[in-house]
């Protein structure tokens, strides 16, 4: 009885000691992030000196050069570029669209080509419009009512979803597959309501796929601003015979070489166990890509710097990876995983930040129940920083290809309310990022990496044995 | 054994039933707020049609008229104006200031008079500057080093505080009492670094008090933007002999009559038990008072509407109170409490929203441990809405005068990271409020009111007996 009591007391005091060491390290990380964080300065450069960084563009290459240079200056153990072939799609001259209520009577509306779309014919397309609430409506309408018309996908994001990402998931099929599906019924083109919960004048671009559709049969697709969508829908209700005109001259070029940018601190005890933290360096071309995903890149870079500057030397190898081409291909994420597998690298943890630079609320984890339980046991440590979400869920697109049974994949979960006001639109710009919110995200990520490094993850070996 | 088991099972199923009724009601409230909330439209009018609403101004009266009209249209049981005398301070023509490094060589810096300050002499004040890090430095310096000079309070907000309100508390004595204290040492004037965690060009006003200082001995006080403060401090380091010039012609007039705006739904079972929800209708004059505290007013108004429209009829009497003159006098809050005491009204709950219209994170409670424990037992109900903070703390300035042992005082706690970017400054404007964040706050407040009404608060009678 006495021995076991003593053991319990020892355990408690050991836990308390560890707790207080963890508290101290995390406080050091947060303090440094909030007083001398670098993420905001880096983002300022990426956003305001470089700007939108679409795969294959000059700006994407400038971002590669700039971030490599900055990582070089941090005194990491190794910094390198990982070559990857990426698609090159170019928007061309600005798109143009109007609603024609009767010949000569037109109202311009803001549109933008979806990423990957084909151009319209040189003179544009002008024809009748059929409004649908989703892909499933096409079958009900049939070829007869669709052929030769523009299909207008107008199902809005569900405002009652508290996570705006859930609302996005419930809509984005219209953007991604809408053109391929409408093409099967002979549509002349596709207009998609922007994935935006707000009513405003910004069209939001984003990736789309023609799937197996032969090149000759592909129909052009554009996003219309939410206000434009409301106007078009209201006009159609008054007169279903109105016409819509749009013109875009975007183009897909051959793939070009680009790079993932990688920096590494070698682990002192388990150098072969790799932890990855990252975001994607490419962005859409309309804004400057601040929230999507400049913030994820600069936060990830700052994770290594914050640990280094607070004197923490990781036991496991820690890598920052700035992935290229998340937006329209995921080539960087796939390449990184492919090379890792070829080299037989053992990844134990991967953390992605690709949900905006807003106040961090927590993390979502794609991992075993045992690993989730371990992470949740650290909840108390995050409480002073108002980090409260430790849930099962999605890690991230770029780290997804690394997935194994033992790997812990995690995604930073920032407050999501404002994200889709800016996502893939002209107003995804630097002034909408708050420095403290951004740096709190970097500190939260660095703290999680610290805890994972210190305590290790639970592998299926350990669970079995 | 069997009986007690049965009892437990009954209790559990009763709880489950209650839980699911509460879940349903809260979902109805949040859904309505996110689809047909009125708070944002009301705020649009207050901010963009009326603007800054300093006590005693025409705009403050317009806000009284507008909000009373809107409450009238909601079909409440009673809407009325409660007269209250308020101070009337007027800024006058825009302030002007510069740093003079040598005669003829000047750099303009943005300043604004603190609310309640006296004017400078007509020609302004130009003299040497002594920089201090707080009021406590005055004694060390002594009259000799202060007399005839401008005292420059430059202690910044502490960026390592996670709650920016804590950082504000640690600084605001410089603004509130700086002039009264510096005056005792013969200072010619006072310049205070703006209460802002960001470096920018906006000076932030706010209330100050001369305490018992006779009118003739009061020295003028102004806030300088954080960038201006950095420049002034850097210039002083290079040359302590530089001069600072500032001019302001603000003026305190006699008190004028104004109003608290009050609307009420009579309780069906306990009409004599009153629940209050409110914000303050006055604001500073530089911006349009959107976050401080237009949001608190329109959220409070929406609380009554959301409950009404979802078909919930409160058992207790529910009042919305839009307090006048929180910013420079608290006369409205004091008047409301004074009248309540004179009428022997029994207040059981008071909820204030005066911390910005950002994503709600939870509530802070000024109440007994028993009442806090009850509220915390509802935590699970709020989880789907990411409301996670239920802590002991401050209720709010306007509801403070109501305080009794039995009363539960509560304050909405929104995310605080961006608040002091805008607080009391020209950029506290409508476009910085996000509709969803605002409406989520209103729904969270309505949900808390619903639960308090349904389950009642725990009075000291109940605890004792």
UniProtKB/TrEMBL annotation, chains A, B:
It comes from the Bacteria. Residues 1-18 form the signal peptide. Keywords: Carboxypeptidase, Endoplasmic reticulum, Glycoprotein, Golgi apparatus, Hydrolase, Lysosome, Metal-binding, Metalloprotease, Protease, Secreted, Signal, Zinc, Zymogen. SUPFAM superfamilies: Zn-dependent exopeptidases. Pfam families: Peptidase_M28. InterPro entries: CPQ, Peptidase_M28. It is found in: Endoplasmic reticulum; Golgi apparatus; Lysosome; Secreted. Transmembrane segments: none annotated. Residues 260-445 form the Peptidase M28 domain. The keyword Glycoprotein applies. PANTHER family: CARBOXYPEPTIDASE Q, PROTEASE FAMILY M28 PLASMA GLUTAMATE CARBOXYPEPTIDASE-RELATED. Homodimer. The monomeric form is inactive while the homodimer is active. This is Carboxypeptidase Q. It comes from Flagellimonas spongiicola.
């Amino acid at each position: 009885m006495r021995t076991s009591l003593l053991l319990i007391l020892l355990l408690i005091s050991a836990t308390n000691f560890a707790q207080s060491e963890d508290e101290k390290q995390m406080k050091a990380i947060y303090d440094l992030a909030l007083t001398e964080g670098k993420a905001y300065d880096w983002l300022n450069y990426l956003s305001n000196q470089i700007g939108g960084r679409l795969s294959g563009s000059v700006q994407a290459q400038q971002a590669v050069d700039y971030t490599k240079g900055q990582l070089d200056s941090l005194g990491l153990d190794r910094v390198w570029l990982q070559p990857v072939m990426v698609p090159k799609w170019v928007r061309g001259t600005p798109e143009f669209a109007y609603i024609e209520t009767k010949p000569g009577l037109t109202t311009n509306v803001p549109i933008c080509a979806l990423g990957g779309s084909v151009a319209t014919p040189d003179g544009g397309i002008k024809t009748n419009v059929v409004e649908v609430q989703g892909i499933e409506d096409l079958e009900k309408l049939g070829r007869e009512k669709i052929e030769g018309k523009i299909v207008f996908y107008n199902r809005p994001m569900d405002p009652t979803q508290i996570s705006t990402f859930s609302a996005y998931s419930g809509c984005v099929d219209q953007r991604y597959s809408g053109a391929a599906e409408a093409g099967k019924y002979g549509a002349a083109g596709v207009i998609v309501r922007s994935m935006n919960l707000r009513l405003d004048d910004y069209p939001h671009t984003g990736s789309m796929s023609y799937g197996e559709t032969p090149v000759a049969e592909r129909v052009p697709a554009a996003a219309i601003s939410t206000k434009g969508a409301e106007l078009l829908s209201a006009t159609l209700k008054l007169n279903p015979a109105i016409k819509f005109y749009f013109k875009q001259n975007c183009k897909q070029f051959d793939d070009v070489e680009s790079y993932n940018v990688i920096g590494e601190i070698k682990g002192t005890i388990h150098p072969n166990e790799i932890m990855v933290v990252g975001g994607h360096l490419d962005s859409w071309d309309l804004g400057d890509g601040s929230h999507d995903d400049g913030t994820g890149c600069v936060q990830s870079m700052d994770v290594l710097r914050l640990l280094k500057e607070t004197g923490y030397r990781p036991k496991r190898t820690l890598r920052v990876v700035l992935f290229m081409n998340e937006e329209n291909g995921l080539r960087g994420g796939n390449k990184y995983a492919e090379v890792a597998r070829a080299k037989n690298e053992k990844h134990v943890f991967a953390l992605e930040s690709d949900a905006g630079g807003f106040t961090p609320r927590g993390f979502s984890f794609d991992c075993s129940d045992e690993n989730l339980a371990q992470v949740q046991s650290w909840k108390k440590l995050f409480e002073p920083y108002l980090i409260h979400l430790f849930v099962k869920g999605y890690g991230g697109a770029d780290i997804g290809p690394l997935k194994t049974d033992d790997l812990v994949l995690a995604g930073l979960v920032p407050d999501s309310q404002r994200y889709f006001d800016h996502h893939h639109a002209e107003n995804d710009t630097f002034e909408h990022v708050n420095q403290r919110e951004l740096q709190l995200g970097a500190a939260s990520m660095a703290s999680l990496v610290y805890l994972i490094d210190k305590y290790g993850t639970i592998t299926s070996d350990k669970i079995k044995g």
